[in-house]
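Hi U.,

Before I forget, here's the chain from the pilot set. I'm dumping it here mostly so it's searchable later in email.
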Amino acid sequence: MSDKLTSSSELLASVDQLIRPEIKALSAYHVPPAANMLKLDAMENPFNWPGCLQDEWFNVLKNVSVNRYPDPAAQGVKDKLREVMGVDKRFDIMLGNGSDEIIQIIAMALAGSGRVVMAPEPSFVMYAMIAKFVGMEYVGVPLKEDFTLDLTAFLSAIDTHKPSLIFLAQPNNPTGNLFEADDVRKIIESTSGLVVLDEAYMAFTDSDLLPMLEEYSNVVVMRTVSKVGLAGLRLGMLMGEPAWLNEFDKIRLPYNINVLTQASAEFALTHYDGLLEQTKLIRSERNRVCSALENSEGFMVFPSEANFLLVRVTKANTGAREIFEKLKSEGILIKCLDGGHPLLKGCLRLTIGAPAENDQLLSALKGVIFA
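Structure:
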């Protein structure tokens, strides 16, 4: 028994000595269990493919050689993405296992002693986390109270910290809003670092930042197919000048896009118009849910160009955490953001679901507020 205790003590001592302090200080990214829950916390498309399309997809998968390594470049997927997203041939495309891997690749390529990653706050948590993973300093610049960019503060932070890498999400997560295009341009023009324009939610807005690749040599654009109904494929993409992507591709691990994802993505992109029809319905439902909440007591709803709504609980003696827990007890999972950032005090994030799911959510919220 004593030997085991000694071994355990030595193990903990080794872990404590060898793991980097900044990694030990982090908490792992937590995804709550969602079995048997109405899942409205992760910005997923609520719609599955129609049965006939599923059958066609299954026939495609039957012919995939899972005993062989995938195409390391996933060229077929790139060709389909270039077609459906209108990417000019002068720009390259690099694929990642979700946007997270692409963020990590970029950060690894630019990491160095004293180098800084910058982003507005609150924004996508992985910008800050991955900066710490690769040993870069992270500087978050708070948004204004209405979640618009504080341009003066951002430009001042650029002048002070000289960031090597800036992330701007358009629309922003978790706030849902678009930053003013002129503000984005001023940030790009004020830095010698690389600016990553993250368009993860581009299917739910009319904004399109690809033309900025033509205007600025220090810009790359990142997108994903997760929000258009393909979250389970974990497929992200980066578009930009070959000079940038050739360097990033040196870090990308071989065969990072598996054969089933490649075959499924090529098939789905062939039917991309159908996926966009689903996003139109989600946009319509977003407007309906927004109107319903604006016309009820207890909530302040922020403008959204994404497939979710950020709301602040305004009813006295009712907290965001309390509403989150009550909904959870009723089998509805949303995202409680209260405590995640000072600007998100009292805030909840609601993913837009199918019409019946949204009705269930609205009814439950009404019940909680007027209980």
